[in-house]
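pls read this stuff:
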Amino acid sequence: MSATALAHDVVSALLDAGLEHAVLCPGSRNAPLAFALDEAAAHGLLTLHSRIDERTAGFLALGMAKVSGRPAAVFTTSGTAAANLHPAVLEAAHAGVPLVAVTADRPAQLRGTGANQTTDQVDLFGDAAVSVDIDDSLGAVLGIALGGLDRGPVHLNVQLVEPLVAGPPGPGGWARTPDSTGRNPELDGPRGGTRLATGPRTVVVAGDDAGPRARLLAEAGSWPLLAEPSSGSRNGVNPIRTYRLLLAGPLGDRIERVVVCGHPTLSRPVSRLLSRGDVEVVSVQARGRWPARPFPVASEHDALSVDRSDDPAWLDEWRAADRALGRRIDALLADEPGLTPYEVAAVVNAAIPVDGLLYVGASNPIRDLDLMALPYGAGQHHKVVANRGLAGIDGTLSSAIGAAIARPRTARAIGYVGDVTFLHDLTALVIGPGEVRPDLTIVVANDDGGSIFATLEQGAPERAASYDKLFGTPHGVDIGALCAAVRVPHLRVTSRPELEQVLASPNGGIEVVEAVVRRDTRRELDARIRALVLDPDPGV
């Protein structure tokens, strides 16, 4: 089979699997795939995006797949181009995202001969993806592989023979078979399953991608809901804003049972709670290729429900403590000079309207958001997304751009990241003149380095001499100049009112808002906030 015909068949199979967005990186060996994608796009069967950086392209497709629940594909040429997809594939594997990595390769007989840009691409991503090495006989194996996209990524390694820009046309025309491959994560919810008895003092922990099921369980049982920002559960009246801090106090000590939904990834207090020998842990099976829990689980279920509400006094205690502690935290921050990172998180959260989208980066931003984000009202839908499969800083801007493109009904889209995460994915902002540019405001909390480590053991005063070199990594980068280089509008703010005003008036397209915060006071500020739990000021 010619390379042209094989490329046509591969793209046709992806269309049948529900592909709507494809990201292409230029190359010679993958030229037949590029032409096939261009043809399919010309017929209105998919939207084609081009990028020059394969890592960026992989995370762009991941963001598209994550918010839509439908397969998105990234196409590269051979060699290091294919290897640059590995971070996105790993994230997709751990988060259960339907990402398709399509890599062009030489025919099998040319492998191991020293041909240019050739390496062993078969099973390049190991256990992170279902891998198929495709020659001119697609057979049923391709359909079987794509049928597994509901569990995570698929790697199609396509052997393409020369000529790469000619050959007979693909068989037949372009058509799309209605599919049921894509899932809609926004519709996930409880579907019966095991019934939980009431009685033990219970909390529901909603980790990443838990979905509405965690909120519905908490409401049915009258239980406190400890919901991470990207859980999809942080609305209604059960979420406890300051749960991470309250777990260190008397309420945390009295917990007898924890129901876990999604992947809890943010909090050491939650990890310690789940590892306690006196706490029963009941888990709803999480999405992803490796869903095994890193903590002792008494029982795991496909779904859970509860017969009746528990004693509401337990939930009322948590609510009262949460309200009081939240007021003390807000009062403390209001007295701080300048703009604090916690205030950045609070302003960003408040700027997301109903039907809005927030893509939040790893490290401090998502943890600051976790403490400062007030729960949204019942029935109000806000999509908060993060790459929490492996919780890396790779590709966050690209994922946010992809998410904004793939969710066109979004009322407002904001990306919220730290400065190191922003710098790590600058090529996300290298977008050609003919490419889709979504309306996306990127808020960068810039403290000139990695302040997450200041709050950990590495940031202890006795390690101050080597801290910046090893962990703080100040960079002194002029973010405004970088934005000018890629022709992205940039605004710099240093106060809460400035940030509120800027976010209230988006200009459209991609724009960057740099919120300047301090790093040298981060450890001390965090300690003062934690102290509010154990030594509250009754006068506040």
